[in-house]
Queue: 2 jobs
Job 1
Amino acid sequence: MSTESLKKELHTLIDNTENEEILKMGKEELVAYQVGDREFNDLSYLGSENRAELEELTNEDPMKDTISYEEFKKHIEEWR
């Protein structure tokens, strides 16, 4: 299928639907692809604020909240 015929088919489908939710979902998907915001393919339902937070968390040092075993043992003794 050529790009032109695919566009025509999509236009026809859009013109023939009255379902606002489907139209909104289609728009969100197209906008996301156009701006290159597809790192989280299965999380495309997230708003921009949540996506930014998630991206920030994925860039965090995974060891930032880690303590050594010795520190852990010390904390356990303090809790007892």
Note: The chain has one domain: 3-79.
Job 2
Amino acid sequence: MKKEFIRFTNGASQDVHNMQSTNDVLTFEMYDLDKNTWESILIDRNNTKIIQYLQKDTETLDETLLKAYSGYVNLDQMLTRYGVVTNIDYETQDDSTQSGFAEESHNITTITLRKPSQVESELEKLKETQTIQDGAIADMAGMISDIADGQTLQDDAIADVAETVSDMSAE
């Protein structure tokens, strides 16, 4: 039997269902997950830079990379539907279910990740260059302060020499 799953940049992985992608949106479903844990993983852009979509043979444990996705770094939404019937075993009767047969149900969370828009990308680049400029300005301010301190020392030394010369002239 083969199962499909995804693996994120940080190594976290989970079985996945109904994987779909467009140019800027990636959508998939996960069953019965700890929503808070996965939200903290998915909200961190470093974890979602590269997403591998794999298939695993449950007997041999061999993994096959089916596809890889990059750039879907914005968690857009996590929508959970609770108690969704995903399988009915028509060979096993169960009077406690609505169908009258054994049912398998799960809490299904649909996750949507999207790529940053052009404006978001440009804003991120501006923030990065501003940080570099802020660092350069701080470095320059430090150098100017050092020069000013050096000038003060130099001015004090000149004043001392002038005073000594003046004292010598008065004698």
Note: The mean pLDDT is 87.
